[in-house]
Design brief:
Blueprint: H1 2-16, H2 29-34, E1 44-47, E2 59-63, E3 68-74, E4 77-83, E5 95-100, H3 105-114, E6 122-123, E7 135-136, H4 138-152, E8 178-180
Parallel strand pairs: 6-7
Antiparallel strand pairs: 1-2, 1-5, 2-3, 3-4, 5-8
Helix pairs in contact: 3-4
Signal peptide: 1-21
InterPro entries: Papain-like_cys_pep_sf (IPR038765)
Keywords: Signal
């Protein structure tokens, strides 16, 4: 029990004292839905912090080829893919879009091929960065799928963030391999 409290305290301190996120473009789900044509497969969607303690770390999705948000949801649910408009009811949190700068059709196809591997993974944050593990969480999922796809294609390994524990959603903002996408004013 002491270890769990210590780890939770570490997570909170890392997140609460993180850098300013105001330098990035943030949108409502409705705005993103209106600009869906500007999104590309496997863009990364970062969800802002919420008011609940479990929402203090944000959340991460990727956009699949059908322009649905793919996520590893949480303890009671696994992988899910839902249309962006289905999130329009969320009014108190915003999202930001990140795009891998060197995306190719071959890499996109490989990521798409790997998605089914994550359908039945269980959620936990106490997991390493091994894509063959039975467990994952949102940031770990995004990190692993890009990394594994690059290895499968025998290209330079794609580490979107430093390979460490934990990988948090806001870590992706500081990757030199990703760009923050501007979708226009709301």
């Amino acid at each position: 029990m002491k270890k769990i409290i210590l780890i939770l305290t570490l997570f909170l301190s890392l997140n609460i004292f993180s850098s300013n996120l105001d330098d990035f473009h943030w949108y409502t789900f409705r705005h993103v839905n209106r600009n869906i044509s500007k999104l590309e497969p496997f863009d990364i969607v970062v969800l802002s912090r919420g008011k609940e303690i479990t929402q203090q770390f944000g959340h991460l999705f990727i956009i699949n080829k059908d322009k649905k948000l793919v996520e590893i949801k949480g303890m009671s649910e696994y992988y899910s893919d839902n249309p962006i408009y289905s999130f329009a009811h969320i009014k108190d949190r915003k999202i930001s879009i990140l795009r891998y700068k060197n995306m190719t059709e071959e890499l996109s196809n490989e990521i798409d091929r790997l998605l089914p591997k994550y359908y039945n993974k269980h959620y936990t944050v106490f997991v390493g960065n091994d894509p063959d593990n039975l467990y994952t969480y949102c940031s770990n999922f995004v990190f692993n799928i890009f990394n594994e796809a690059s290895k499968n294609l025998n290209m330079e390994e794609i580490n979107l963030v430093k390979n460490r524990f934990p990988i948090l959603p806001f870590d992706f903002f500081y990757s030199e391999k990703l760009e923050n996408i501007y979708l226009g004013e709301e």
